[in-house]
Amino acid sequence: MAISLPLVFDAPRRGMPPRHLADLDSDERKAAVQELGLPKFRADQLARQYYGRLQSDPALMTDLPADVREKVGQTLFPPLLSVVRNIACDEGDTRKTLWKAHDGTLLESVLMRYPDRNTLCISSQAGCGMACPFCATGQAGLTRNLSTAEIVDQVRAAAASLRDGEVHGGPGRLSNIVFMGMGEPLANFGRVLKAVRRITSPSPDGLGISQRSVTVSTVGLAPAIRKLADEDLSVRLAVSLHTPDDELRDTLVPVNNRWSVAEVLDAARYYADKSGRRVSIEYALIRDVNDQGWRADMLGKKLRKALGPLVHVNLIPLNPTPGSEWDASPKPVQDEFVRRVQAQGVTCTVRDTRGQEIAAACGQLAAEG
């Protein structure tokens, strides 16, 4: 049975937090400080504190007059996210954080240290409305969109933790951002786009992380992929395809009832042509569901035809959720799947799995509360 899903780029602001500095662009920051009776130069001063020094508490901003810090804090730095708990695994190289927003909403981020990079997986929504049956977040449903500032502050907080040596391995620098946490980023399009610009703009307008080190993931909202392409960014697009055939994808990724595999791959090609970046095809390998050899052959053929050399398949061993009927494919099946995709002339690698003992599949920690 086809499932009808509304095309929502920006849901209503139900439960959204009050305005924060990270919600504002340069002109809006200047207007905001002038509303407080402060000179315009304070706008960049505050932004340099937040984005450059990773400071979110005006009480500790010593270059700000003491008599205005409280007012600035109440107006431009309302409390956004508080840590419920951090859980570490992989000998401390993976840390999952459960956050609580101002309205009690729970969301997650995961910080992963590798020898050559430090990657943060962030959430763009609390919950998710895409209803993919093998995903803990999808089964929980959508609570609400996150604000631009709630997205950005996950990044600021992780960058500060790394800088200050609060994460196993000593002080470091945050280098990569992936929008692969809770939610469908392109269903919160406007705020995610602003967050990408805050994350990648140089100080005082942002955190200065390279666009080429940012990945935006989607289950395949084809019009939004094209809309993102027209923003002329150089972020990487990741498409959660999970199967090459419409019949199974209608079940695994219900939004496929709205936009077919062919439509999604056509939009992905448009993005690749506009950005000059290879598209990453995410494929969660599920035992006896989508791991058949003929599906590997079909996947390789469709991707070669649609995207040519501008594609890379990222095979993901499923991280099962407690009580789920879904399980990861055996390694010999996984290896054969990789071989058959590569035989079609398409690059295919297996993602390094992290956090299996700490409920690192998106949404698991929030579901546990």
TrEMBL record:
GO MF: 4 iron, 4 sulfur cluster binding; metal ion binding; rRNA (adenine(2503)-C2-)-methyltransferase activity; rRNA binding; tRNA (adenine(37)-C2)-methyltransferase activity; tRNA binding
The keyword Transmembrane helix belongs to this UniProt entry's keyword annotation:
no
Q: How is the cofactor bound?
A: Binds 1 [4Fe-4S] cluster. The cluster is coordinated with 3 cysteines and an exchangeable S-adenosyl-L-methionine.
Catalysed transformations (reactions): adenosine(2503) in 23S rRNA + 2 reduced [2Fe-2S]-[ferredoxin] + 2 S-adenosyl-L-methionine = 2-methyladenosine(2503) in 23S rRNA + 5'-deoxyadenosine + L-methionine + 2 oxidized [2Fe-2S]-[ferredoxin] + S-adenosyl-L-homocysteine; adenosine(37) in tRNA + 2 reduced [2Fe-2S]-[ferredoxin] + 2 S-adenosyl-L-methionine = 2-methyladenosine(37) in tRNA + 5'-deoxyadenosine + L-methionine + 2 oxidized [2Fe-2S]-[ferredoxin] + S-adenosyl-L-homocysteine
Q: Which GO terms describe its biological process?
A: rRNA base methylation; tRNA methylation
Q: What is its EC number?
A: 2.1.1.192
**Secretion signal span:** none
> Which residues are involved in binding [4Fe-4S] cluster?
128, 132, 135
Enzyme class name? transferase
Family in the record: Belongs to the radical SAM superfamily. RlmN family.
Q: What is this protein called?
A: Probable dual-specificity RNA methyltransferase RlmN
